[in-house]
Amino acid sequence: MAAGGLSRSERKAAERVRRLREEQQRERLRQVSRILRKAAAERSAEEGRLLAESADLVTELQGRSRRREGLKRRQEEVCDDPEELRRKVRELAGAVRNAKYLVVYTGAGISTAASIPDYRGPNGVWTLLQKGRSVSAADLSEAEPTLTHMSIARLHEQKLVQHVVSQNCDGLHLRSGLPRSAISELHGNMYIEVCTACTPNREYVRVFDVTERTALHRHQTGRVCHKCGAQLRDTIVHFGERGTLGQPLNWEAATQAASKADTILCLGSSLKVLKKYPRLWCMTKPPSRRPKLYIVNLQWTPKDDWAALKLHGRCDDVMQLLMDELGLEIPPYSSYDMVHYGHSNQLRQARAMGDYLIVGVHTDEEISKHKGPPVFTQEERYKMVQAIKWVDEVVPAAPYVTTLETLDKYSCDFCVHGNDITLTVDGRDTYEEVKQAGRYRECKRTQGVSTTDLVGRMLLVTKAHHRGQEMSSEYREYADSFGKCPGGRNPWTGVSQFLQTSQKIIQFASGKEPQPGDTIIYVAGAFDLFHIGHVDFLEKVHGLAERPYVIAGLHFDQEVNHYKGKNYPIMNLHERTLSVLACRYVSEVVIGAPYSVTAELLDHFKVDLVCHGKTEIVPDKDGSDPYQEPKRRGVFCQIDSGNDLTTDLIVQRIIKNRLEYEARNQKKEAKELAFLEAMRQQESRPERESDSDM
């Protein structure tokens, strides 16, 4: 006898009986399920009796069916009709106006307009994976802030939104101009890696996705801290992990904001993850004292029953209506400032003063506030500066006024600026604090180039800046007056002539010869107003080989003018040479390259590959194809940079905003002259005081 009083044979018999009953139960369940799928009128009397005898199973199956239908309905996207949506937006606008402390919670739904897939929508990542379908890999670095991102940034600027709590890792909130202090990125930022060995943690903000080699519980990026040499890690919080980093997660600010909030607006989030964070919902407060909740989503969320208002609409549509209702203009993502070889020369000089160069780039908002409308978008400027070969790191959204706190945050020994002045909107020196602390150094301003000069060339449509041409009296008069305020001329604003020297070219050139095993790639063009379109093209070209040696052929000014017309090129050959040499993807420049790529040129430089962008190839003067020889040799390749920006588009931006740019430069010079006068008076005061004492 075995334990329990049953023999082995008896236990086996009992097990067979149990299995038989389970199989009978499953068969009964299948029978009842088939019957329930039939219409009541189609069921036989015997089937009716079986249903009556299986009431418990009928109840269970009907419950399962209701739950399945409920889950299916929750995944469906529902849109309010236009009139109903407008009515709800009017109610939401009233809540925004009356809120004392409004916090915005955002999810993947606000980035779908930037071609970044959400998770639980009909074409979301999780939805497709559950259906066994593949998910296409989007290049998130190409995404730009959406209308919703820009609207939130404007609402914060207007002090209508106090804080933003985001589940997204795409970095679009920061790129919209929203200050770091105003956002908690609970799941990290794919463009930020940190050194946790440094105290405080040292942040590195990149223009590329740092998570290429990282995964769940594996966060090392493969790069090291320039200060201590420790391994850097990403900031991403994966499913199944708990975020421990202070920044960019910023949980402390998120918790404080939730505790102060009287209104919460949820945009594009399913709330299935956020609902698991009780400190975001003030659950310890009695219901009457909890924040009013407003939800914008096309699908069901677990917080719908708690919401004061649920708006079924796309985030961009709702935010457009909301901003119209509030009477606020949504700032476009594409506002403007230029990066030219004068800036590159400053960075070259700054890099020579130290071991590691960190460059802070201001937002469009900051530039517009203190100087006037910029020419390139902040994202274009970020990538342009990163492409300059002397730059080690870029800090986006850098404060306009440089403080000791900023220098300490990035472990900088000192900061460097040109020997001109930069003033705030109220006329103060932006480097006053660091100068007083002895942590400021100057480099020489590059004579003969300024944004003022380049803008003037575009507006006047002159060719006087072309190499070998005299400056006409018309251009000289315009150059003297463009940006000149009543009352004088300061030494920094205005136009002077750029004089090229061999020493300047040597300073910009890499000086490196191609080595055995290098792939020599030749590209040619005007490369006028060297911009992000050129950078994206050269970056793609540089990535074609494991050991690329990229030679850029620059056409003569008259050659460019022949095929471009008008007053092109805006920059002359010498200026374009320095601009291209400053790019980290270029190894050598041919100054005054022939328009047609000849056999002699290919043989002389031992060219392995010739590349051209997707722009139109204009025939040579004799009607021949300028790339005929490389095509014959089978070494020609067309590259799609994925960027449509051209010199023409930049000039159109300038012309469209001509009056704003003229006003910008007049205001800038007026502030600088007032500052110079104040400095002169301060310098002369001690002399007068000493004379009176004698």
UniProtKB/TrEMBL annotation:
Domain Deacetylase sirtuin-type: 82-329
Spans through the membrane: none
Enzyme Commission no: 2.3.1.286, 2.7.7.14
SUPFAM superfamilies cross-referenced by the UniProt entry: DHS-like NAD/FAD-binding domain, Nucleotidylyl transferase
Entries under InterPro entries matching the protein: CCT, Cyt_trans-like, DHS-like_NAD/FAD-binding_dom, Ect1/PCYT2, Rossmann-like_a/b/a_fold, Sirtuin, Ssirtuin_cat_dom
Biased composition (Basic and acidic residues): 8-24
Cofactor(s) required for function per UniProt: Zn(2+)
Record bears the keyword NAD: yes
CC terms in the record's Gene Ontology section: chromatin; cytoplasm; site of double-strand break
GO molecular function: ethanolamine-phosphate cytidylyltransferase activity; histone H3K18 deacetylase activity, NAD-dependent; metal ion binding; NAD+ binding
Pathway: Lipid metabolism; Phospholipid metabolism; phosphatidylethanolamine biosynthesis; phosphatidylethanolamine from ethanolamine: step 2/3
Function (record text): Ethanolamine-phosphate cytidylyltransferase that catalyzes the second step in the synthesis of phosphatidylethanolamine (PE) from ethanolamine via the CDP-ethanolamine pathway. Phosphatidylethanolamine is a dominant inner-leaflet phospholipid in cell membranes, where it plays a role in membrane function by structurally stabilizing membrane-anchored proteins, and participates in important cellular processes such as cell division, cell fusion, blood coagulation, and apoptosis.
Protein name (record): Ethanolamine-phosphate cytidylyltransferase
Organism: Rhinolophus ferrumequinum
